């Protein structure tokens, strides 16, 4: 007779706040003893595997108004409990900023996208198998990065500093390329560029983002600018489920035939979403033609520092940048 075994989380108390203020107060009170739950795709796995054992889980789904998507004349406002499926299927969003809809559509599987949220995708933890496994790496409080001299085919080629994990979010590069702003609710509610949410390991190796206890990511706002074009390309081992081996998001405006406000952001190749200003300079203020595209593709890999097993990511990034720019040039 077959027996099915399942991991059981350590017992916790589920808290169901009715407002952001209440949720922030609970998070500030319980600090390390609590976990915030949005869609739960990542958190539930961590609870079952006992990677996290909080005494309290704060269920954000009981707060009204966090699952919203409003497209107006000059901006898109997205509540952070909006599901990735909502983003993928919204026609107005696709028309206004195709890159974000494309990024949402490449996350995992349709089933996960119907549950997973924008906020959860942005703030998910490292997926490095050494960090999530039985090892005790730098990020987990140890004294070395096991990937540095271990199996590192999928690790960082940019920005590695004691830790060579990669940012696992698909939506983050698209939002940063589009110049999106995040609203962080807490004792003092503030707005900041989405790119400032993420924590480089050189500053704090133990976390992936800058939100402190008692702070909740509540909304993301994307500006809509005339002539804006955007795209997102992801390379993964399989078309569904897998995290990015490398991805690129590009946004720019075409003004009188010239590229303006160019932003090029990589995913899957650095511990944070990696904006490449060198590649942007090769395009800014110029015609998007074969010469400038090749210049940008070459500049995109300057500064790459691959590990023993992931040098293939260098030409892959170059190819993705070239493909994205050629798509936007049409």
Note the quaternary state here.
single chain
How large is the count of helical segments?
12
Measured by DSSP, the beta-strand proportion falls in: 15-25%
- Please provide the ordered H/E string of secondary-structure elements: EHEHEEEHHHHHHHEEEEEEEHHH
Question: What is the CATH topology assignment of the largest domain?
Answer: Uridine Diphospho-n-acetylenolpyruvylglucosamine Reductase, domain 3
Describe this structure in words.
The chain is an alpha+beta fold. The protein folds into two domains: about 1-55, Uridine Diphospho-n-acetylenolpyruvylglucosamine Reductase, domain 2; about 65-330, Uridine Diphospho-n-acetylenolpyruvylglucosamine Reductase, domain 3. Helices cover about 25% and strands about 20% of the residues. The protein is built from twelve helices and twelve strands. Strands 4-5-8-6-7 form a five-stranded antiparallel beta sheet. The protein has a four-stranded antiparallel beta sheet with strand order 9-10-11-12, with helices on both faces. The termini are far apart.
In short:
This protein is of the alpha+beta class and 330 residues long.
Give the key terms:
single chain, 330 residues, alpha+beta, Uridine Diphospho-n-acetylenolpyruvylglucosamine Reductase, domain 2, Uridine Diphospho-n-acetylenolpyruvylglucosamine Reductase, domain 3, 5-stranded antiparallel β-sheet, 4-stranded antiparallel β-sheet, 27% helix, globular, disordered N terminus
Q: What is the element layout, followed by pairings?
A:
Elements: E1 13-15, H1 20-30, E2 34-37, H2 43-48, E3 56-59, E4 69-71, E5 75-79, H3 84-89, H4 91-96, H5 98-105, H6 110-113, H7 118-123, H8 129-132, H9 171-177, E6 181-185, E7 190-193, E8 216-223, E9 228-235, E10 246-255, E11 258-267, E12 274-275, H10 277-281, H11 290-299, H12 313-329
Parallel strand pairs: 1-3, 2-3
Antiparallel strand pairs: 4-5, 5-8, 6-7, 6-8, 9-10, 10-11, 11-12
Helix pairs in contact: 5-9, 11-12
């Amino acid at each position: 007779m077959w027996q099915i075994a399942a991991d059981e989380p350590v017992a916790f108390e589920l808290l169901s706040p009715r407002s952001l203020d209440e949720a922030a107060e609970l998070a500030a009170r319980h600090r390390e003893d609590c976990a915030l739950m949005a869609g739960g795709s990542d958190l539930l796995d961590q609870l079952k595997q006992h990677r996290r054992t909080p005494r309290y889980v704060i269920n954000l789904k009981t707060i009204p108004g966090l699952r919203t998507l409003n497209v107006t004349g000059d901006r898109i406002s997205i509540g952070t409990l909006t599901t990735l499926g909502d983003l993928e299927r919204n026609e107005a969003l696709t028309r206004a900023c195709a890159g974000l809809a494309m990024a949402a559509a490449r996350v995992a599987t349709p089933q996960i996208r119907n549950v997973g949220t924008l906020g959860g995708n942005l703030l998910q933890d490292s997926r490095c198998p050494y960090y999530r496994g039985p090892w005790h790496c730098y990020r987990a409080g140890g004294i070395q990065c096991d990937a540095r001299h271990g199996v590192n085919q999928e690790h960082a080629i940019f920005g590695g500093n004691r830790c060579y994990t990669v940012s696992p979010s698909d939506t983050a590069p698209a939002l940063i390329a589009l110049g999106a702003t995040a609203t962080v609710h807490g004792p003092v509610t503030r707005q900041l560029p989405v790119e400032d949410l993420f924590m480089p390991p050189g500053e704090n190796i133990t976390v992936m983002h800058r939100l402190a206890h008692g702070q909740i990511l509540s909304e993301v706002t994307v500006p809509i600018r005339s002539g804006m074009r955007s795209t997102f390309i992801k390379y993964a081992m399989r078309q569904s489920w897998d995290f990015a081996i490398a991805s690129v998001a590009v946004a720019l405006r075409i003004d009188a035939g010239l590229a303006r406000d160019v932003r090029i952001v990589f995913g899957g190749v650095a511990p944070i979403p990696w904006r490449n200003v060198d590649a942007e300079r090769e395009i800014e203020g110029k015609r998007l033609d074969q010469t400038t595209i090749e210049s940008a593709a070459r500049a995109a890999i300057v500064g790459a520092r691959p590990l023993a097993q992931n040098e293939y990511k260098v030409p892959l990034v170059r190819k993705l940048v070239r493909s994205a720019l050629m798509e936007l040039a049409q």
